[in-house]
Amino acid sequence: MATPKAMKPRSRPRISASLVFICIAVIALVFLLCSLSSTIGSSLSPYGTSEIVARWGRPKHQHSLHDKYLYWGNKIDCPGKHCDSCEGLGHQESSLRCALEEAMFLKRTFVMPSRMCINPIHNKKGILHQSGSGNVTSDEGWKASSCRMDSLYDIDLISETVPVLLDNSKMWYRVLSTGMKLGARGIAHVAGVSRKDLKEHKQYSNLLLINRTASPLSWFMECRDRNNRSAIMLPYLFLPSMASKPLRDAANKIKAYLGDYDAIHVRRGDKIKTRKDRFGVERSLHPHLDRDTRPEFILRKIKKWVPTGRTIYIASNERTPGFFSPMSVRYKLAYSSNYSRIIDPVIENNYQLFMVERLIMMGAKTFIRTFKEDDADLALCDDPKKNTKVWQIPVYTADEEAS
């Protein structure tokens, strides 16, 4: 009987060191190419890094005690002549823009008031939630006649240009308490010191906190060279474009419904003021305003700018129902009241409403103001917007004859 041959065990294949090295090199090369392609792709693609950040939410600015801070006070126009009441949104925004510009210039984080005063003249609800009791303290009155700053503005969005810290935040209290412990090495209370000196002198530049005593008139008086356009660091449209997300969303929805449209801002209620002189004659600071903002004169003025049949969004503080209806003979008219289902859930006061309407007007094909802000603006009235303190007889006829 034949004896079977013993089977030789199979030898395991040997992996040479050179082959292992080649594999590692190939993997490393693949990773390197992927990394380069993603970097190049993000820079060339319309959806770059900033777009990705926008999709997933902007990273919030992280404040620390290593930063430097600038404080102007807890009310936008204080110190100033309007501490007990306040000016309108436009004046307060001028002050806020001035303070933000100084923070930019000094490379400091701006400590922003957490609330903005609401002037009852510019709010259809008057002083919000004010108690009928006469025992309301000044602090309670301030809270009742103001709104949260972050209900008006997107603080994180502003912080992408100028770092901002609200004065009701825990970090602000840390900054304040640390500065007080450091004493003169931590805080300086300054008045009448130029921005240049605050930036260049070490006694100020190295401090944790600068407490600015603004102009006794109002904050924006600190920007004395605002007429020098080269000195303006933030454009007028900066704060209007920084509206809070709910307000931006509401405006975008309305703009989508409007489609291709034009817009007019008609300012009447607070600007049409008359008083009698010593002879009993009515006079006005804006003698042509009442005339120029009436429907028949608006139609005459805008016909060269807006073709017949266009949709016109009208933003106005005129309270007479149907006041602009005569314009419907030539145009399709739209108002905020047409979109109450969008606006009502997010609007608590007229400041918020006006901020939504500003965004809508900014999106119009043709925008017509009440008064000219710049020479290139289209405007209904040629009277100067600023108070000239010259009381004139109002003009109501086209041939400039006083009535």
The gist of it:
By secondary structure, the protein is an alpha/beta fold. It has helices spanning 17-44, 49-56, 89-106, 138-144, 149-152, 155-159, 170-182, 195-200, 202-205, 245-258, 289-292, 295-302, 340-343, 350-362, and strands at 69-71, 109-112, 115-117, 146-148, 164-166, 187-190, 209-212, 262-266, 274-276, 282-284, 311-316, 332-334, 367-369, 378-379.
In total, how many domains does the architecture comprise? 2
Biggest beta-sheet profile: 5 strands, parallel
Classify the helix fraction into a percent range.
Answer: 25-40%
Q: Order of SSEs, N→C? A: HHEHEEHEHHEHEHHEHEEEHHEEHHEE
Give the helix tally.
Answer: 14
Q: Kindly report the spatial arrangement of strands forming the biggest sheet.
A: 5-2-1-7-6
Backbone shape: globular
Over the alpha carbons, how many angstroms does the gyration radius reach? 31 Å
Rounded to the nearest angstrom, the distance between the terminal CA atoms is 141 Å
Write down how many β-strands occur, each being a DSSP E stretch of 2 or more residues.
14
Key features?
Rossmann fold; alpha/beta; single chain; five-stranded parallel β-sheet; 403 residues; 14 helices; 14 strands; 2 domains
Tell me what the structure shows.
The chain is of the alpha/beta class and 403 residues long. The chain has two domains: 69-242, no CATH class; 245-379, Rossmann fold, CATH 3.40.50. It contains 14 helices and 14 strands. The chain has helices at residues 17-44, 49-56, 89-106, 138-144, 149-152, 155-159, 170-182, 195-200, 202-205, 245-258, 289-292, 295-302, 340-343, 350-362, and strands at residues 69-71, 109-112, 115-117, 146-148, 164-166, 187-190, 209-212, 262-266, 274-276, 282-284, 311-316, 332-334, 367-369, 378-379. The strands form four sheets. A five-stranded parallel sheet has the order 5-2-1-7-6, with helices on both faces. Helix 10 (245-258) crosses helix 14. The longest helix is centred in the first third of the chain and has 28 residues, at 17-44. The relative contact order is 0.11.
